[in-house]
C-alpha cells in the first residue's frame, strides 16, 4: 500500500488514540498534531479510506479505525514493537502518552523472533495478574483486536475511560474481567471495549 509520510502518521495517531482512549482523534486534533489544516487532514483521511487503510462508521464521530489486516510499519519492524503506554494490572489507571518503542533485539537477542502485523507493546503496572505469570514491570505483547473469546487475556477499556489488563469472560448479562491474584476482586461491567489480546509476555532481568 503506497502511503505518504503524513498518511502513515495519521494511521499511527488513530491507532494510538483508539488503544489509549477507545476512540479516534478528531480532524482538528489530527491537524493540530501534524501542523496542517483540517482540510488537508480530511483529504488524507478520504484517501486512506479509498486505499482501504481506514474504515469510518457513517454518521458517527470519532469512529475512524484501521482496517482489518492493515499493519503499520512500526508494527512490522523485526524485534521492535511500538510502546504505546502503561496498562493497569491493579486498580485501573488512566493511560499516558508514550511514543517510545520496545526493542526486543536489544533486550533478548535474535532468538525471540519477529513481530507480526497489528502488534504493539504495553508495560504492566501492578500485580493483579501475577498468578498467570504477568508481573509488575513486564511487557505484554498485544495483538490489536476489538473482540475476544472467554478466557482471553485482554486490554479492556472500561466505561469510565480507564484501561486494565484482565482475563475476559462474557456472562449472562455482564462482562467479568478476572484478575489472577486473590487479593483483587473481579471487575464486573455491563460492557467494555476490547483493545487487544495478549500474545506474549517479556521480562527484562
User: Reading side by side through the largest sheet, how are the strands ordered?
Assistant: 4-3-5-6-11-7-8-9-10
Taken as a percent bin, the fraction of beta residues is 25-35%
The CATH homology group name of the largest domain: Umud Fragment, subunit A
CATH architecture label of the largest domain: Ribbon
Would you kindly provide a written description of the structure presented here, covering whatever features stand out?
The protein has 205 residues and is of the alpha+beta class. It has two domains: 5-66, Winged helix-like DNA-binding domain superfamily/Winged helix DNA-binding domain (Arc Repressor Mutant, subunit A), CATH 1.10.10; 73-202, Ribbon (Umud Fragment, subunit A), CATH 2.10.109. The protein contains four helices and eleven strands. It has helices at 5-21, 27-34, 38-50, 104-108; strands spanning 54-55, 65-66, 80-88, 100-103, 119-125, 139-144, 153-157, 163-170, 175-178, 187-189, 193-202. The strands form two sheets. The chain has a nine-stranded mixed β-sheet with strand order 4-3-5-6-11-7-8-9-10. A two-stranded antiparallel sheet has the order 1-2. Helix 2 crosses helix 3 (38-50). The longest helix has 17 residues, at 5-21. Mean pLDDT is 84; it is low at 108-117.
Topology of helices and strands:
Elements (H helix, E strand, L loop, with lengths): L4 H17 L5 H8 L3 H13 L3 E2 L9 E2 L13 E9 L11 E4 H5 L10 E7 L13 E6 L8 E5 L5 E8 L4 E4 L8 E3 L3 E10 L3
Parallel strand pairs: 3-5
Antiparallel strand pairs: 1-2, 3-4, 5-6, 6-11, 7-8, 7-11, 8-9, 9-10
Helix pairs in contact: 2-3
Amino acid at each position: 500500500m503506497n502511503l505518504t509520510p503524513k498518511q502513515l502518521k495519521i494511521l499511527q495517531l488513530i491507532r494510538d488514540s483508539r488503544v489509549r482512549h477507545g476512540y479516534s482523534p478528531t480532524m482538528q486534533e489530527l491537524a493540530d498534531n501534524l501542523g496542517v489544516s483540517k482540510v488537508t487532514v480530511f483529504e488524507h483521511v478520504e484517501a486512506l479510506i479509498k486505499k482501504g487503510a481506514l474504515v469510518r462508521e457513517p454518521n458517527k464521530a470519532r469512529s475512524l479505525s484501521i482496517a482489518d489486516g492493515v499493519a503499520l510499519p512500526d508494527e512490522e519492524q523485526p524485534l521492535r514493537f511500538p510502546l504505546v503506554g502503561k496498562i493497569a494490572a491493579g486498580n485501573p489507571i488512566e493511560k499516558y502518552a508514550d511514543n517510545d518503542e520496545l526493542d526486543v533485539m536489544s533486550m533478548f537477542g535474535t532468538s525471540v523472533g519477529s513481530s507480526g502485523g497489528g502488534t504493539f507493546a504495553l508495560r504492566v503496572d501492578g500485580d493483579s495478574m501475577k498468578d498467570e505469570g504477568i508481573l509488575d514491570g513486564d511487557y505484554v505483547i498485544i495483538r490489536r483486536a476489538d473482540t475476544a473469546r472467554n478466557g482471553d487475556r485482554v486490554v479492556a477499556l472500561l466505561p469510565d475511560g480507564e484501561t486494565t489488563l484482565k482475563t475476559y469472560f462474557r456472562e449472562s448479562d455482564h462482562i467479568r474481567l478476572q484478575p489472577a491474584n486473590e487479593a483483587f476482586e473481579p471487575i464486573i461491567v455491563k460492557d467494555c471495549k476490547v483493545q487487544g489480546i495478549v500474545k506474549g509476555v517479556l521480562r527484562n532481568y
